[in-house]
């Protein structure tokens, strides 16, 4: 049975000609309007299918979420039916999820092949993409216009412009203004930000697609040394503890010239109660000495637990949430980047959320984290890397020495199985 509600196609599970109502649970993070957005779509699904869906709220940190998932799955937890997963988790959690290959064979071709490949482990489709992600440089267009500055296209230009505007505005009576805020805490988000800096500087990708450890090189050290120089000058010292929402909190109160963050922050910054509504725009992240911009591939996917006792209904829920209709709704509401390429030309999205259409090339050329080559060891590799980045930003050892130590740690991990 198919029902269309609020422009979204929903499928119900039929047993004996009558839809059997089941109670499902889905986990979701708590960044921005994640929960409100999901609840809106779940309400539509419930009305159309007869099922009930409970949201199990998770912490904002993806690192904390991953730790909780592993605990639940290793214990064979039957209480969670659908997991919302980061794009890099598939190799590590594949054994605990249902193979969706057959259930999604009629729709999988709509989605970006590279994203589907990232969610396929040894021929098993572990999860389906809910939305994709790639970060942006947010900038205060009013302040750049005030000081006659162009949007920076290199990290060197960003640092110089941030310092000039920050100093001038502080002297004019804005002592809380910072030049640049980003994610520098010891967690997964700093793996993304650190990888972008290194890759844009020509310093490689931590671990190559072939599994070679590449992070210990002068260009990578140069990139991290540059970022260390920002802390306490154009960025507050507190950036060493910033995750996405910490950076957005400073930015949205009007206390930063530039910010690195994901597209979710765009509609929030333009909300009716936002002090910076209409005062900012976004651009690709700056290039380093390597001459290119690097944006880390992000995105969230949906997987069905093999321990669920409601697998068929859970699969129907996943089909709904990854559908073109649901992805279009999320793009219109909260600038979620679709994993379905055709939606980037959708007239409604182009008209109402032009940022989505502009971000197609950024998304398609985004830099992947090394989850595929490091397989089940990715989380340990990432933890070692983000710790190195955080320590270097904090001045706990110089970049070259810290990367040399990281290289030795990664080689030990590789010998132990990847």
Automatic annotation (TrEMBL):
<keyword id="KW-0732">Signal</keyword>
<dbReference type="InterPro" id="IPR006059">
    <property type="entry name" value="SBP"/>
</dbReference>
<comment type="similarity">
    <text>Belongs to the bacterial solute-binding protein 1 family.</text>
</comment>
<protein>
    <submittedName>
        <fullName>Trehalose/maltose transport system substrate-binding protein</fullName>
    </submittedName>
</protein>
<feature type="signal peptide">
    <location>
        <begin position="1"/>
        <end position="21"/>
    </location>
</feature>
<dbReference type="GO" id="GO:0042597">
    <property type="term" value="C:periplasmic space"/>
</dbReference>
<keyword id="KW-0813">Transport</keyword>
<dbReference type="Pfam" id="PF01547">
    <property type="entry name" value="SBP_bac_1"/>
</dbReference>
<dbReference type="InterPro" id="IPR050490">
    <property type="entry name" value="Bact_solute-bd_prot1"/>
</dbReference>
């Amino acid at each position: 049975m198919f029902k269309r509600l609020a422009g979204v196609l929903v499928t119900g599970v039929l047993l004996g000609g009558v839809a059997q109502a089941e109670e499902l649970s889905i986990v979701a993070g708590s960044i921005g309007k994640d929960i409100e957005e999901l609840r809106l779509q779940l309400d539509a699904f419930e009305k159309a299918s007869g099922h009930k869906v409970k949201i199990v709220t998770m912490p904002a940190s993806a690192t904390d979420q991953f730790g909780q998932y592993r605990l639940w799955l290793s214990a064979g937890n039957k209480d969670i039916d659908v997991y919302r997963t980061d794009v890099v988790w598939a190799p590590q959690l594949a054994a605990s999820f249902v193979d969706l290959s057959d259930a999604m064979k009629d729709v999988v071709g709509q989605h970006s092949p590279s994203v589907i490949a990232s969610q396929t482990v040894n021929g098993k489709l572990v999860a389906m993409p809910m939305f994709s992600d790639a970060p942006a440089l947010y900038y205060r267009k009013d302040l750049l216009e005030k000081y006659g500055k162009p949007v920076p296209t290199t990290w060197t230009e960003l640092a110089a412009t941030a310092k000039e505007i920050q100093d001038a505005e502080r002297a004019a009576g804005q002592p809380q203004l910072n030049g640049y805020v980003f994610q520098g805490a010891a967690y997964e988000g700093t793996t993304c930000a650190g990888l972008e800096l290194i890759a844009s500087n020509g310093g490689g990708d931590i671990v190559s697609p072939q599994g070679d450890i590449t992070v210990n090189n002068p260009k990578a050290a140069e990139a991290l040394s540059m970022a260390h120089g920002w802390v306490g000058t154009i960025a507050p010292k507190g950036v060493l503890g910033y995750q996405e929402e910490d950076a957005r909190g400073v930015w949205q109160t009007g206390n930063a010239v530039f910010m690195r963050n994901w597209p979710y922050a765009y509609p929030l910054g333009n909300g009716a109660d936002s002090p910076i509504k209409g005062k900012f725009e976004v651009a690709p992240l700056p290039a380093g000495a390597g001459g290119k911009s690097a944006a880390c591939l992000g995105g969230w996917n949906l997987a069905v637990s093999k321990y669920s006792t409601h697998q068929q209904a859970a699969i129907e829920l996943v089909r709904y949430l990854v559908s073109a209709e649901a992805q279009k709704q999320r793009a219109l509401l909260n600038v979620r980047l679709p994993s379905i390429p055709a939606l980037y030309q959708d007239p409604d999205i182009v008209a109402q959320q032009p940022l989505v259409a502009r971000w197609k090339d950024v998304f398609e050329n985004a830099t992947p984290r090394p989850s595929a080559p490091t397989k089940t060891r990715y989380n340990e590799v990432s933890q070692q890397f983000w710790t190195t980045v955080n320590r270097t930003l904090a001045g706990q050892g110089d970049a070259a020495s810290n990367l040399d130590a990281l290289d030795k740690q990664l080689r030990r991990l590789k010998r132990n199985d990847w």
